[in-house]
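Below is a filled-in request sheet from our internal design queue. Each sheet records the structural input a requester submitted and the sequence that came back. We keep these sheets so that new team members can see what a complete request looks like end to end.

REQUESTER: design group, bay 2
PRIORITY: normal
MODE: inverse folding
CHAIN LENGTH: 225
BACKBONE (tokenized):
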């Protein structure tokens, strides 16, 4: 160990169960536990760093965690640190080639252009609400008929169709598409799925409670024997 840990933190670092969820309040040292867990797996259990994936929900958190790990380890022993989206981007790029992501500015503009046809006043919060609904709809896998949007359903459908059509015409993806396409790739190509099952033997997810349904399904696909 590279940090002084209390008895419960030590248990979390040394646990040998296949699936473990650590519940702890803010400021209790969750990141310290994750860093020491990685160090323990590599230094003591002799796990190959390429078999470890560390997921965070922001790039800044991934950068911070990576630097904290570098401060206690050999720089040659480097697992993957990043967001779900960066991981999925790398997977798709390896198997599907070049990927172009729609800019947040363009996504905002597309939705706003539809909304101005229906509403007198359009604020940023309303546009964000619709974009969040689009993301939520795509990740739930529900039908459009059963989906309950926060805005008027007919207006939401117009926004959704304009947004998706623009991406299709311009060969663009959004972050939700990355998740959907990775899940589809794993379901349709078992050889690729088995490759990542063998490669990603240890998956550590910071703030796991923030995972959406699709992210959990992908984790289950990879983690299943």
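RETURNED SEQUENCE:
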């Amino acid at each position: 160990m590279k940090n002084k840990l209390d008895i419960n933190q030590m248990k979390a670092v040394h646990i040998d169960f296949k699936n473990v969820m650590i519940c702890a309040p803010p400021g209790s040292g969750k990141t310290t536990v994750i860093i020491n867990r990685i160090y323990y797996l590599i230094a003591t259990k002799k796990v190959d760093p390429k078999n470890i994936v560390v997921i965070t929900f922001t790039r800044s958190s991934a950068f911070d965690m990576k630097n904290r790990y570098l401060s206690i380890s050999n720089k040659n022993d480097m697992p993957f640190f990043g967001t779900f989206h960066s991981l999925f981007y790398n997977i798709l790029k390896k198997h599907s080639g070049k990927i172009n992501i729609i800019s947040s500015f363009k996504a905002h503009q597309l939705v706003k252009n539809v909304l101005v046809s229906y509403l007198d006043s359009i604020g940023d919060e309303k546009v964000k609400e619709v974009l969040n609904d689009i993301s939520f709809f795509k990740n739930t896998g529900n039908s459009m008929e059963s989906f309950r949007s926060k805005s008027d359903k007919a207006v939401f459908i117009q926004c959704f169709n304009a947004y998706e059509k623009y991406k299709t015409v311009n060969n663009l993806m959004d972050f939700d598409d990355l998740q959907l396409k990775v899940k589809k790739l794993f379901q349709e190509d078992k050889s690729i799925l088995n490759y990542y099952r063998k490669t990603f033997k240890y998956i550590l997810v910071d703030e796991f409670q923030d995972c959406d349904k699709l992210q959990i399904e992908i984790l289950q696909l990879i983690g299943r024997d």
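SHEET NOTES:
- The beta strands are 52-56, 80-83, 202-205.
- Residues 126 and 143 are 23 Å apart (CA to CA).
FILED BY: M.R.
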